[in-house]
Amino acid sequence: MQANTARADRIAQRSRSENWKKPPRRIESSECITCDTCLRNCPPEFGAIFDRGLDVVIIPELCSGCPKCVLVCPVDCIYVDEEWTPTGDQMWSHIELTTGDPA
């Protein structure tokens, strides 16, 4: 339950945990086959990966930088995102609708 609370807090604050030292991951959409394997393997305490229908994205504020998605990706299209930018309001609204967490 505590992990879900931490995730909900990150969604509400729209920020990454200060304890995370690794940069978030990103999915190269031009290489992705939208199989959702990464999404199914992202630990629920992070829940950083979303399928938007036409593409799959990683929300940097929710991504701890762990390699679980990288290890299962069949096309190796997930990379470290050293220069990530904050997630836009439209995507946060989508997260709120799909998770029920206040954004």
From TrEMBL:
Signal peptide span: none
GO MF terms, alphabetically ordered: iron-sulfur cluster binding; metal ion binding
Domain of life (superkingdom): Bacteria
Cited PROSITE patterns: 4FE4S_FER_1 (PS00198), 4FE4S_FER_2 (PS51379)
Region listing for Disordered, in residue ranges: 1-23
InterPro entries named among the record's database cross-references: 4Fe4S_Fe-S-bd, 4Fe4S_Fe_S_CS
SUPFAM superfamilies linked: 4Fe-4S ferredoxins (SSF54862)
Annotated Basic and acidic residues bias: 7-23
Location of the 4Fe-4S ferredoxin-type domain: 23-52, 54-83
Keyword list, A-Z: Iron, Iron-sulfur, Metal-binding
Protein name as annotated: Electron transport complex protein RnfB
Organism, as annotated: Kibdelosporangium aridum
